[in-house]
Design goal:
By secondary structure, the protein is of the alpha+beta class. The chain has a single domain (about 15-210), classed as Cytochrome P450 (Cytochrome p450, Orthogonal Bundle), CATH 1.10.630. Helix content is about 35%, strand content about 20%. The chain is built from six helices and eleven strands. The chain has a three-stranded antiparallel beta sheet with strand order 7-10-11. It has a two-stranded antiparallel sheet with strand order 1-4. The two termini are about 40 Å apart. It binds protoporphyrin IX containing FE.
């Protein structure tokens, strides 16, 4: 590599900042919600476990997508209009900010059916979901640059955790949500109890841990 091809300190710093700011918290929160949902759906959890030896188990991907559908990390994405637009009968002038609601779209029964509010990963295996009604990474010409990276990261961590420990939610009730910086997080930090370590069959005293550094 030629000396002038080497990235400057500034470029390296920018890349690290992108990973930390755009990539770290978002992915940590996505993982937190995924465990919050999965541990409250034992049948889905068992099915993920059954597919752990399959490097590309479609059900694991379905769980990733479904968790981001019912519990999106970023709840809206803003766009400022550069020219006037007519949208759903409204004439909007240039300069106006438009915020498509990720939550409203992803829980809309018109696109997801009467059970839109339910965590049901199977819906992704039916071939029925409308991909343009799933926008946890934004949509259109400009969307998240790290979407695929995040998917690989989340699925890898999910599989690694499930191979290592058996978990349960610390209480059956769904966790509420609250805003933290720009992300929507599980209110109680996605608390789980470690039932036992797998492999060495070490039965540990119940410990409560949080997923996601939120
Ligand atoms: C589950 C995890 C993640 C979620 C939910 C997420 C979500 C989003 C959303 C909603 C946007 C705004 C898109 C728009 O303007 O329409 C965005 C932008 C962006 N994300 Fe992510 N993200 C995640 C992980 C990552 C990771 C891991 C990286 C990098 C390694 C990353 C890098 C970026 C960058 C660079 C942008 C700005 C793109 C642009 O404006 O051109 N994200 N992300």
């Amino acid at each position: 590599m030629l000396l002038e091809d080497e990235p400057s300190d500034e470029v390296v710093r920018d890349e690290v900042m992108t990973l930390l700011v755009a990539g770290h918290e978002t992915t940590a929160v996505a993982l937190a919600w995924l465990f919050e949902r999965l541990l409250r759906h034992p049948e889905a959890l068992a099915r993920v476990r059954a597919g752990l030896d399959d490097r590309k188990d479609p059900y694991r991907t379905a769980v990733f997508k479904e968790a981001l559908r019912v519990r999106p990390v970023i709840t809206n994405v803003a766009r400022r209009l550069t020219e006037p637009v007519e949208l759903a009968g409204y004439r909007l002038p240039a300069g106006v900010a438009v915020l498509p609601s990720v939550v409203a779209l992803q829980l809309d029964p018109r696109y997801w059916g009467a059970d839109a509010h339910l965590f049901r990963p199977e819906r992704w295996l039916d071939g029925s979901p409308q991909q343009n009604a799933w926008i946890p990474f934004g949509g259109g010409a400009r969307r998240c640059l790290g979407a695929m990276f995040a998917q690989v990261e989340v699925e890898t961590v999910l599989a690694a955790v499930l191979r290592t420990v058996e978990l349960e939610a610390d209480r059956p009730a769904d966790e509420g949500s609250e805003m933290h910086h720009i992300t929507m997080i599980p209110k109680r930090g996605a608390r789980v109890r470690v039932l036992r370590r797998l492999g060495n069959q070490d039965v540990r005293p119940a410990a409560t841990e949080s997923f996601g550094e939120v």
